[in-house]
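Fold it.
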Amino acid sequence: MNITVLELSEDKVKITLIGQGHTFMNALISEIQKDPTVDVANYVIEFQFSDPVLTVTTHEKKDPVAPILAACNRIAASCDELLNNIAAIKK
């Protein structure tokens, strides 16, 4: 997945996630919002076929990239668990 960093400061990051849509972005936002350091986590898809822009801001100037990484790791772990359960069915 390619990303473009549009803005990065102590407590705010704004990135474009190229090629992603509402399905992935909703899952990502849901996971990011579980982090207590996050103030705002949202995304905007300006036009039907444009790439989403993710914005995350944090409280007390915490690293805004850390909640994104943690959320991605949780999503990946859930996908790995699902793949393992499906593989077990085939055996």
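The mean pLDDT is 95.
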